[in-house]
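Work Package 3 committed the consortium to producing structural models of liganded targets before the mid-term review. Because experimental data for this complex are still outstanding, the team generated a predictive model from sequence and the ligand definition alone, so that downstream docking and mutagenesis planning could proceed in parallel. The input record is reproduced below exactly as it was submitted to the modelling pipeline, together with the SMILES string for flavin-adenine dinucleotide.
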Amino acid sequence: MSKNILIIAEQRNSQVQNVTFELIGISRELAKANDAKVEVLLLGHNVGDQVANIVGYGADSVFVVDDPALESYMTEPYTQAVTQVIREKEPNVVLVGASSIGRDLAPRVAARLNTGLTADCTKLEMQPDGSLEMTRPAFGGNLFATIVCPDTRPQMSTVRPGVMKRCEFDATRTAQVENIKVEFAPSRIKLVKEVKQTCSVDSIEDAKILVACGRGIGKEEHIQRAKDLAYTLGGTYCSSRALVDAGLVESCRQVGQTGKTVRPEAYLAFGISGAVQHLAGMEDSELIIAVNKDETASIFNVADVGIVSDATRVLPLLKEEIEKIIKA
Ligand SMILES: Cc1cc2nc3c(=O)[nH]c(=O)nc-3n(C[C@H](O)[C@H](O)[C@H](O)COP(=O)(O)OP(=O)(O)OC[C@H]3O[C@@H](n4cnc5c(N)ncnc54)[C@H](O)[C@@H]3O)c2cc1C
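The resulting structure, written out as tokens with the ligand in place, is given here.
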């Protein structure tokens, strides 16, 4: 077994997803504890042009499995390829993004390797002996559990997108690149067609300013005002689960434990109570401004600026003031 960390890159339509660069970022930190190397496994078809990005964000080695069988994500061939490469390279740690793809792939791979998997981690720490401490929210986010995998290797973890920080891109970095051929067993499953969920999202994970809507402004006219404010500020809008469950906001805009993790420069929360499950997705925002008519609302515990008021009144006033500043 090596002491290295292997990241399973996630690509969609041949574009490596942000979570991969975030995993490389945290792996560079972890690798310092036991002088390990950061390796990335890139799977897909015609994905070779993505290697430079992976290297620039900090990989020491990139293993590429390029095969028509891997063109679109399918559980079986991806599981076979990942398992085969892990058996060959024997990494100490395997990290996978906790996306819909990663959540499908990682448990299957772990089961085939007969090893443990800690899902949905928000914090990772490496000990000098190479044992990984994996922390994840438990009991609905009310406590954090730190889990180790003492008896089997590799130590596997899925990590929530948006939680870890990527490194600065360095175009001058170099890395070892190895193409690996995988033997696929005949597939029992055929992909007939892909139907993509349409979502008008200008990615909330990448937005610098987010205006977040909660049940306190849970009417279409107020949500529209929040959208207007978001676009005036050059950002976009998101919401708590309450409005997603009510069918008022698309699920891809949900922030929190079962939604997305965001870290914008400014997070403006209107009519959000601040349940732990919501805070789990936004509390690392650089500046949090909360408007709630209840002065005891938990959102104020994480807010940098708190306004105790009726959010439906504050929204248009704020937009008006900001427009004046922009025009001035
Ligand atoms: C396993 C699990 C996972 C979950 N995952 C998520 C998740 O990912 N994301 C998430 O958001 N939630 C999640 N939840 C739900 C979470 O527990 C809360 O129920 C939810 O976040 C509440 O949303 P809210 O703050 O919009 O609504 P509420 O809790 O109902 O709060 C509404 C707030 O608006 C205030 N208000 C009312 N009217 C006004 C007004 N006119 N002006 C100003 N303030 C006003 C009220 O004082 C109140 O504080 C999860 C729950 C569970 C059990």
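Reviewers should note the following from the model. Residues 209-327 form a domain with the Rossmann fold fold (CATH 3.40.50.1220). These observations will guide the Year 2 experiments.
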